[in-house]
């Protein structure tokens, strides 16, 4: 069965207009006051949507306000130093979002005179702008009837329409995009898409949906069948890989601390950290000789001063934080430097290494 036939079958006997009206009326009446909803500025919408990926609304609000204060326009963000952007993003995680956003905004400034494109072809070509972000910007900022489908929206519609396709599969997202194209209000696509997002955020939540408070309960097939907690269907993720490290908190004779910049690509790219020794490859007793080979410094290990566990989407870092002192040698690593403890926190660090900052007062 092709996608369009499946869409037709799913939407058969579904009252599309009643669903639209109920959802939009509820959203206009009950929507939360959020800083990115103050107007329809596409740049503000764009920044908010990138920040909200993988991150809770309450967490994003202060970051959004600070970011817009520092970089109020596309031109301001395009001209900013990457390290300043990463510092403003510090703690939000998924830092490639910030780098992609800045790179894409630079394209907007250079190619479109600072105006965020209002057509899906040009907008979709920008770095980091996937189908969801594209649909969100076009519908929320420009009132165009484009689908904006993320996990939230798939959860809501899988319950309302009783769709049992696995939402972890790419083809299922394509199905839901086709469903939204059929359902979306042509008169008020901004409120329709935001209404779906809002419904998923505060009513149709993952584990305990508040069905008795739901504005579209009369149209929800899963609720009427009593299977709302069985939707959506989602296959389990792969087990996260565990990686043990020794994070070395090293001081020289001047009381300065050694920090290093991560590579410009890959996990946590361009952020700063305390030196990390992979304990899968190096025995703890061999750390001083490994360190001399990698950094040109002879060090004396002290006690373990902390243990930090940080969970990423695909792996887990187990970090044993070890205090150490330099006893000889010259630092021989381009991306590393000794820094005064008072200046360390001015660099952008990932959350895992921010947890080590408290030892700067040792």
Commentary on this structure:
- By secondary structure, the protein is of the alpha+beta class.
- It has two domains: 3-149 and 182-195, Endonuclease III, domain 1 (Orthogonal Bundle); 241-361, Alpha-Beta Complex (Nucleoside Triphosphate Pyrophosphohydrolase), CATH 3.90.79.10.
- Helices cover 43% and strands 15% of the residues.
- The chain has 16 helices and seven strands.
- It has helices at 3-10, 16-30, 42-52, 57-70, 74-79, 82-89, 96-112, 120-124, 131-141, 151-160, 170-183, 189-202, 221-225, 287-295, 341-344, 351-354, and strands at residues 241-251, 257-261, 272-273, 276-278, 297-311, 315-329, 336-339.
- The strands form two sheets. A four-stranded mixed sheet has the order 4-1-6-5. A three-stranded antiparallel sheet has the order 3-2-7.
- Helix 2 crosses helix 12 (189-202), helix 3 (42-52) packs across helix 4 (57-70) and helix 9 crosses helix 12.
- It is elongated.
- It starts with a helix and ends in an 8-residue tail after the last helix.
